[in-house]
Amino acid sequence: FICLSVLQMSYSRYRSRSRSVDSSDVENPGNNLFVTGLSSRLTDRDLEKHFSTEGEVIDASIVLDPWTRESRGFGFVTMATLKEAERCIKYLDRSVLEGRVITVEKVLPKDC
Fold first, then answer.
1. 16 pLDDT exceeds 70?
2. Separation CA 88–CA 31 (nearest Å)
3. Do residues 102 and 36 touch, judged by C-beta distance below 8 A?
4. Cα–Cα distance for residue pair 69/72, rounded to 1 Å
5. Calpha distance 21→43 (Å, rounded)
6. What's the pLDDT band for 67 if we cut at 50, 70, 90?
7. Does residue 102 fall inside a structural domain?
8. Residue 9: pLDDT over 50
């Protein structure tokens, strides 16, 4: 499991500043997933398509290096429900995407 407070710093740096709600203030209901092992060729849309096999994807984003704009090899996926997120962990953890084995974990609350 990954601690949200560690990831929130790097994740928030690469997200749009124009969002009306600060994501650090929103409590994680358990449907937010941390995905690692991503190919540098992968797009947000590819990630969304892979996870949509297990339910409705609310958001899928790959974290980019701010200077090179290349993938850092990890990202976040928000599923519509906790049940769908758990299904993603069960069926997509250690699955192959673009020739790479990915890991899928729940993002832990900040106070971990």
1. no
2. 10
3. yes
4. 9
5. 25
6. very high
7. yes
8. no
Q: Residue 69 corresponds to which tokens in the numbers above?
A: 């704009």
Element (H, E) at 50: helix 44-51
Q: Is residue 1 part of a domain?
A: no
Q: Measured at the alpha carbon of residue 27, what is the angle toward residues 5 and 104, in degrees to the nearest 5?
A: 65
DSSP state of 22: -
Structure tokens at 40: 């540098």
Amino acid sitting at position 107:
V
Q: What is the pTM of this model?
A: 0.75
Identify which of 70, 81, 78, 71 has the alpha carbon closest to the alpha carbon of residue 104.
Answer: 78
Give the span between the Cα atoms of 15 and 1, in whole angstroms: 22
User: Which residues constitute the domain of residue 48?
Assistant: 32-106
Kindly report the CATH number assigned to the domain that includes residue 47. Answer: 3.30.70.330
d(CA 91, CA 13): 30
Tell me which amino acid residue 71 is: S
Q: How far apart are CA 73 and CA 100, in angstroms?
A: 10
